[in-house]
């Protein structure tokens, strides 16, 4: 069943950030059986949710690189964003993100969603269709954070701080990571259900602040939305590993 890739949320109760949702190579694999990579990440093909742009499944070696940091430049029409990906936090996620960047999956794509809820302030990108409904044609497991602080005043411990400058994956439920990701421009309150795999540099945050200041496009039904397409159309022109 396709899961909607938008948040059903209010300013008081944010339910989450959602996105679209990889290989057995046996010659006798049935045509209707999804391919699954043989390594520990088990990237899984999603025939029911085909790729927005043709791309292969990521490499999945027996040992996923899990040490060190990698720099990726997102060049956008609103300014540059330098991302630092942390392999130790989320090795399968970093491996997938680098694969998609290398295959130019993110080039010339539009960041489709800006949120300005009191407790959720992010820019969401990574869908070449620009709709928030599509992904890379595969999914993979969560690598959820365990070290996020509790949201101030939350006595249940179920709401965490996704701090300004956090880079995390959007999803459509457990273990449905694909290509969509979100960039946090102000501390946000979320359940720890979203893989954190890096951070955003100072110039990138300045770019995000610019997009945020531009506001959200009004609609016929809502002249002052807090969730929707940014007024300042934000296009990723290229995504490239720089180190």
TrEMBL record:
It is an enzyme of class 5 (isomerase). Keywords: Isomerase, Rotamase, Signal. Coiled coil: none annotated. One of its GO terms (molecular function) is peptidyl-prolyl cis-trans isomerase activity. PANTHER family: PEPTIDYL-PROLYL CIS-TRANS ISOMERASE B-RELATED, PEPTIDYL-PROLYL CIS-TRANS ISOMERASE-RELATED. PPIases accelerate the folding of proteins. It catalyzes the cis-trans isomerization of proline imidic peptide bonds in oligopeptides. This is Peptidyl-prolyl cis-trans isomerase.
């Amino acid at each position: 069943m396709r899961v909607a890739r938008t948040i059903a949320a209010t300013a008081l109760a944010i339910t989450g950030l959602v996105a679209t949702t990889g290989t057995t190579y046996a010659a006798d694999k049935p045509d209707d059986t999804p391919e699954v990579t043989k390594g520990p990440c088990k990237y899984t093909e999603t025939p029911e949710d085909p790729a927005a742009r043709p791309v292969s499944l990521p490499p999945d070696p027996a040992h996923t690189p899990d040490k060190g940091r990698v720099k990726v430049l997102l060049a956008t029409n609103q300014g540059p964003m330098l991302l630092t990906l942390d392999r130790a936090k989320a090795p399968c996620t970093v491996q997938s993100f680098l694969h998609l960047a290398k295959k130019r999956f993110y080039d010339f794509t539009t960041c489709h969603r800006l949120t300005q809820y009191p407790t959720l302030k992010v820019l969401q990108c990574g869908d070449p269709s620009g709709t928030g409904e599509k992904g890379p044609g595969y999914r993979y497991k969560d690598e959820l954070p365990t070290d996020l602080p509790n949201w101030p005043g939350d006595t249940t411990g179920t709401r965490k701080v996704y701090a300004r400058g956090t880079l995390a994956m959007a999803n459509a439920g457990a273990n449905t990571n694909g290509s969509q990701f979100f960039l946090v421009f102000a501390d946000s309150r979320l359940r720890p259900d979203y893989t954190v795999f890096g951070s955003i540099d100072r110039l990138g945050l300045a770019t995000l602040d610019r997009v945020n200041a531009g506001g959200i496009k009004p609609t016929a039904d809502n002249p002052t939305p807090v969730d929707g397409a940014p007024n300042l159309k934000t296009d990723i022109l290229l995504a490239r590993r720089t180190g």
